[in-house]
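Sequence, please.
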């Protein structure tokens, strides 16, 4: 018999270790089948709204025009209302003289005089055709004759119905002008207004309660305490609800407390058609939502665990008549599963048609591994290759917030495959509004200076996408034809030169700017006082208590670090983040004692800095494409004084300028 731990913390630790993670992982198709069987995907009841609030709504019933549109016969040109019989035989040689009636029919004026034989009435476009008239002649076909009895000389015959718009020609009384399930756009608003309708019946928008759960979350705008994250899922889910025809009801952030979460869910169930909870599905000490859902109403949990990547921890449930979706906490996982399972339901409840996803074919530039047994969705950016579009996978993981904004779309790796091979064609489903690929794709090492360069390009009408894979990764991408520019700072240890020794035939180098690299540490650390970077690192390598933070393989900074360590592998060596900022954050937060980063980042994080070298941040490109407009714009901008000023504010200098100090 196992006795419960006496220590409260040990009890929590034991509970977390035993915690049930997934009830039963099922395939994507099985999960969807259970979801659709248990949750009706049909339009909600109608509601009546004013016409000015109907834009973007869906008609709940057919609409018949209550009036003729136009409601009267009207002139289609400026001219004269006439009897067609009076115009027979009229020509330049033998014009017909018609006496003008003492009335002018402007728009909105009801006629008071009939058009008798031998007469005509001036009329404006849209004017009501008077009694007796059956045609309109253009003013250009007449000559005005002044005198005691004003008249016109008509030099052109007009048949019956000439330039006349008849009542009901646009919409007849009782005619069905719009059908049920029509999406109301500006065009439909105009039709309804022309029918005189001030309000219409539309499908009620589904009310979707949006909650986020997690002790680690803070609302945007609040101070960010240690180990806390801003809640991005709540904002993006609410926006996506609105984007797909629903009304988001913000429920805020709920702590990982079973009582608090159950109360929040019960409140949400009482006022919403659908509840979406972000977080609380994966294994963790605070994940309690699936236990709560089991007691909120029948049938309860439908699915808890789907063979998707990302998105495995998805939980689908129904509490009474209200469907509940518990999304994974990581942003990418949350949005993939939201668009896969929740968007179709919201659109159906709102009466909207399913989303028409545009897709394009693109080539996969290199092998992509995947996990057998799980359908994997891979977000990718599109680039123009030598043989058409190239799909560049964005390897940011399910916790990346920016992945959706940088991606052009996603493709699937089937569950029965362990990956896709280089050169395979994938079908990329576009995300959001499908636009053309950017004018430039820049792959390589991250730098704030490049952000400024891209901003200057945008100001000149050139779009650019930047992907961070390290200097060596950028150069490899350029060689494979996946990008236009490789951003790099690779030091060749044999020659002591940057970047140029790594170029292969056909590649050229554009000099960018200079950045000061050095050792970063927390200010006040006595181990760095009065020492050079090399001496301080040698001292710390021998200190078993010291922890470093490294850089990823392929990064230009990694080569610099390896040279500095001279074969040593101190504690922290295998901690290999992908950016200068991540290095500085690790040191600033005390997770590491030192690392190598640029001086700008050290300053921004309030760290000490011992200079190592002034590195060259340059751009490699294909010489044969030098004259292409977008690439030529980059090359000219590198000599631009405005860009130089922006770089100077970051502590960078252009090639040929005075060295930074």
């Amino acid at each position: 018999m196992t006795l419960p731990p006496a220590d409260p913390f040990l009890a929590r630790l034991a509970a977390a270790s035993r915690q049930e993670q997934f009830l039963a992982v099922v395939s994507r198709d099985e999960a969807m089948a259970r979801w659709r069987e248990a949750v009706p995907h049909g339009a909600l009841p109608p509601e009546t709204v004013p016409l000015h609030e109907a834009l973007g709504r869906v008609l709940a019933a057919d609409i018949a025009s209550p009036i003729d549109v136009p409601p009267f016969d009207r002139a289609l040109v400026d001219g004269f209302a006439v009897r067609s019989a009076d115009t027979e035989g009229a020509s330049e040689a033998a014009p017909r003289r018609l006496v003008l009636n003492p009335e002018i029919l402007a728009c909105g004026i009801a006629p008071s005089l009939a058009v008798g034989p031998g007469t005509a009435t001036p009329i404006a476009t849209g004017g009501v055709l008077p009694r007796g008239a059956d045609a309109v002649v253009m003013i250009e076909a007449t000559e005005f004759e002044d005198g005691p009895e004003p008249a016109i000389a008509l030099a052109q015959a007009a048949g019956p119905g000439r330039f006349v718009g008849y009542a009901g020609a646009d919409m007849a009384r009782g005619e069905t002008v719009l059908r049920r399930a029509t999406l109301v756009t500006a065009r439909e608003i105009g039709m309804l207004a022309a029918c005189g309708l001030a309000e219409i019946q539309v499908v009620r928008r589904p009310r979707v309660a949006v909650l986020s759960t997690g002790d680690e979350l803070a609302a945007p705008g609040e101070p960010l305490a240690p180990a806390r994250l801003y809640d991005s899922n709540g904002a993006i889910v609410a926006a996506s609800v609105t984007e797909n025809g629903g009304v988001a009801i913000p429920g805020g952030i709920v702590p990982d407390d079973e009582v608090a979460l159950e109360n929040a869910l019960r409140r949400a169930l009482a006022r919403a058609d659908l509840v979406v909870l972000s977080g609380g599905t994966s294994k963790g000490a605070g994940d309690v939502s699936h236990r709560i859902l089991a007691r909120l109403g029948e049938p309860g949990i439908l699915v808890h665990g789907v063979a998707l990547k990302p998105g495995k921890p998805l939980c689908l449930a129904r509490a009474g008549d209200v469907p509940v979706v518990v999304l994974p906490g990581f942003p990418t996982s949350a949005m993939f599963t939201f668009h896969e399972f929740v968007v179709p339901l919201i659109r159906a409840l709102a009466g909207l048609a399913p989303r028409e996803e545009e897709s394009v074919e693109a080539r996969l530039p290199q092998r992509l591994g995947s996990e057998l047994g799980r359908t994997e969705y891979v977000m990718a950016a599109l680039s123009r290759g030598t043989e058409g579009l190239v799909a560049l996978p964005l390897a940011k993981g399910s916790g990346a917030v920016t992945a959706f904004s940088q991606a052009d779309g996603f493709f699937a790796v089937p569950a029965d495959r362990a990956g896709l091979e280089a050169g395979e064609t994938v079908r990329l489903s576009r995300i959001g509004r499908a636009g053309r690929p950017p004018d430039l794709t820049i792959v390589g090492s991250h730098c704030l200076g490049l952000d400024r360069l891209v901003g200057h390009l945008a100001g000149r009408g050139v779009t650019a996408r930047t992907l961070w894979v390290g200097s060596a990764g950028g150069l490899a991408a350029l060689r494979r034809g996946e990008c236009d520019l490789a951003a790099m700072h690779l030091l060749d240890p044999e020659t002591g030169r940057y970047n140029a020794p790594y170029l292969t035939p056909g590649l050229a180098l554009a000099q960018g700017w200079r950045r000061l690299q050095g050792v970063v540490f927390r200010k006040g650390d006595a181990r760095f006082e009065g020492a050079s970077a090399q001496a301080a690192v040698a001292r710390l390598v021998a200190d078993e208590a010291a922890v470093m933070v490294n850089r990823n393989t392929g990064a230009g900074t990694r080569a610099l670090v390896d040279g500095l360590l001279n074969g040593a592998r101190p504690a922290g060596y295998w901690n290999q983040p992908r950016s200068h900022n991540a290095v500085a954050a690790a040191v600033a937060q005390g997770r590491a004692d030192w690392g190598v980063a640029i001086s700008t980042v050290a300053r921004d994080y309030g760290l000490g800095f011992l200079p190592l070298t002034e590195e060259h941040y340059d751009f490699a490109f294909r010489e044969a494409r030098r004259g292409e407009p977008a690439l030529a714009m980059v090359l000219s901008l590198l000599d631009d004084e405005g860009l130089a000023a922006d770089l100077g504010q970051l502590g960078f200098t252009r090639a040929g300028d005075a060295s930074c100090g």
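The first strand starts at residue 46 and ends at 50.
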